[in-house]
Amino acid sequence: MIRAVDTLLDRTIVPGYTRLGFHLRRTCWTRDDPAAGALRGRTAMVTGANSGIGKSIATRFAALGAATVLAVRDLDRGGRARREILDAVPGADVELAQCDVAEPASVDACADALARDHGTLDVLVHNAGVLPIDRTENSAGHELTLATHVLGPLRLTDRLTPLLASAGDARIIFVASGGMYAQPLPVRDPEYRRGEYRGATAYARTKRMQVAFAPLLDGRLADQGVSVHSMHPGWVDTPGISAALPRFSSALRPAMRTADEGADTAVWLATTTPSPMSGHFWHDRRIRHEHYLRHTRYPEDHLLSLWSYCLDEAGAGLH
Ligand SMILES: NC(=O)c1ccc[n+]([C@@H]2O[C@H](COP(=O)([O-])OP(=O)(O)OC[C@H]3O[C@@H](n4cnc5c(N)ncnc54)[C@H](OP(=O)(O)O)[C@@H]3O)[C@@H](O)[C@H]2O)c1
């Protein structure tokens, strides 16, 4: 019965992605919550941790005992978030690392700093996200959502692989989006050079790529004891969504999830022992379908050619 309600919530989207879905499903979870101190002795890094869902994930990690690294592109905003996390979790171990995930040099500098200061990395959450209005590029000429959601995370993962491998049971989590259900993989135009640019389309395509690439990355890293997961948080009331989709967010605000509710599945994936089944797409602590529309399905060779393009452009040796 509970499973039937859960599936119905998933298929009907609107109730499932809102607080209603979270609270109905939550009634079955209480014994499955992370134990106090579940991350004691571990190191966790969250990108885009100064705001919204990323800040909530980082706060939960800090409360569960992790040495928590807030990877942020703006150290002032990051410093404010760090102080707020320390107010919420006095005595927690929280540090800042500068990381613009869309900029290769910044990613490399962040990975170098982490390697210098920490021998291992147990959890890496690729949370940083953008929904631009106009097509823009990073300094290397890559479209911004591709650089932020795909190329930067692949490069950061590549540079941090030795630290992740030394953890024993490291977890990588992509904060993707249910928006990806509407878009296929952009195999022929990964940089969105053709047609009229729509930020929401670019966003959904690159979130689709995160979900499609998670199992490939998982396959590359499994023998080093690293598991890779993707998840979507539902519709969450955050500064990012208010700025990017003002009408959508003001219409839905009363029903939207809080940032803590949106963070829940990422925290659960990072802390549950043994590790939940890797390479899958999760929402509200359950594996979800990756497609609901026929036109979003792709043959394996399309996936592998896009994967290869992205690894090359990311400068990541994860082939
Ligand atoms: N809210 C939702 O309903 C929803 C639904 C599905 C998926 N998501 C996903 O959840 C994640 C968090 O989004 P949110 O809603 O919490 O939005 P948010 O409040 O805007 O947070 C996004 C974070 O990403 C950071 N960021 C953006 N570009 C970056 C870059 N190049 N380098 C480093 N950090 C960067 C932002 O930093 P600045 O403060 O410096 O801009 C901010 O801290 C995103 O991946 C988003 O796609 C959200």
Strand order of the largest sheet: 3-2-1-4-5-6-7-8
Superfamily (CATH H level) name: NAD(P)-binding Rossmann-like Domain
SSE-based structural type:
alpha/beta
* Straight-line N-to-C gap: 43 Å
What general form does the structure show? globular
Give a quick account of the main beta sheet: strands, pairing sense, barrel closure: 8 strands, mixed
List unreliable stretches of 5+ residues.
Answer: none
What's the total helix number?
12
Rg estimate, integer Å:
18 Å
Output mean pLDDT: 95
Number of strands: 8
Approximately how much helix is present in the residues?
40-55%
What is the CATH T-level topology?
Answer: Rossmann fold
User: How do the helices and strands follow one another from N- to C-terminus?
Assistant: HHHEHEHEHEHEHEHHHEEH
What is the total number of structural domains?
1
The CATH architecture can be named as 3-Layer(aba) Sandwich
CATH class: Alpha Beta
Bound ligands, named by name, code or SMILES: NADP nicotinamide-adenine-dinucleotide phosphate
Which strand-content bin applies to the residues?
Answer: 5-15%
Describe the structure.
This protein has 319 residues and is of the alpha/beta class. It has one domain: NAD(P)-binding Rossmann-like Domain (Rossmann fold, 3-Layer(aba) Sandwich). Helix content is 46%, strand content 12%. The protein has helices at residues 2-11, 14-17, 19-26, 52-63, 75-88, 104-117, 144-165, 199-221, 239-244, 246-252, 259-271, 300-314; strands at residues 43-47, 67-72, 94-98, 123-126, 170-175, 226-231, 281-283, 286-287. It has an eight-stranded mixed beta sheet, with helices on both faces. Helix 4 links the parallel strand 1 (43-47) and strand 2. The longest helix is centred in the middle third of the chain and has 23 residues, at 199-221. It starts with a helix and ends in a 5-residue tail after the last helix. The structure holds NADP nicotinamide-adenine-dinucleotide phosphate. NADP nicotinamide-adenine-dinucleotide phosphate binds at residues 47-48, 50-54, 73-74, 77, 99-102, 127-130, 148, 175, 177, 232-233, 235-236, 238-241.
